[in-house]
Amino acid sequence: MRKPKPYDYSDPRPPSRSQMKRDSSALQVLGGKLADLPDSALKRLALPQRLDEAIREYKKLTRHEARRRQLQFIGALMRETDTEPLARAVEDMEAGNRTQAREFHEIEAWRAALLLGDESGLEEMLAPVPEQDRAELRSRIRTLARNARTEAEKAKPPRAAKTLFRLLRELRSGVRPLGDDTEAEEGGTPEAAP
């Protein structure tokens, strides 16, 4: 997103109409991104009351033209607000979402490789785990992968695959994944899965 260029007051000329339109459009885009954030994130931003109310009203609207006009109003209100921290907060949240998606895809790739029988990345996954726990984890991962392949062949629900995903996610996040999953490995009812 292009940040609006602040007006340089040392320049004797006023900003051009084109520059004013670009600034207005940039504020509307930022306002739209703010409106797309969940309510919990909006509360953390501590927006001015009028801007907060306008964004909440925008979220209630369903008709295209009404939403467009409300977005213009939000852009106008943002001219009175310091947009630098808001733009930074939106960028940080978008970067966090991209990071989460990248981590999710990485875990999915690990699980897919294990389900295909490729254990070449297993040692990399187990690197942060203390040496004394690696053998047990290696065994659990192999058992879950084998059970997941069996479930897939028999067209059963993917319980072991979901348990394997949770185990890999815990490994990725640095949580010690040595809880008792024997019930899930033996075909019992696992916890809720992703």
Task: Itemize the secondary structure elements and their pairings.
Elements lengths: L16 H20 L2 H7 L3 H12 L3 H15 L4 H33 L6 H5 L4 H23 L5 H15 L8 H4 L9
GO molecular function: rRNA binding
Protein name: Ribosome-associated protein
Keywords: Cytoplasm, Ribosome biogenesis, RNA-binding, rRNA-binding
Quick gist of this model?
The protein is mostly helical and 194 residues long. The protein has helices at residues 17-36, 39-45, 49-60, 64-78, 83-115, 122-126, 131-153, 159-173, 182-185. It folds into two domains: 17-81, Orthogonal Bundle (Diphtheria Toxin Repressor, domain 2); 101-185, PSPTO4464-like domains (Diphtheria Toxin Repressor, domain 2), CATH 1.10.60.
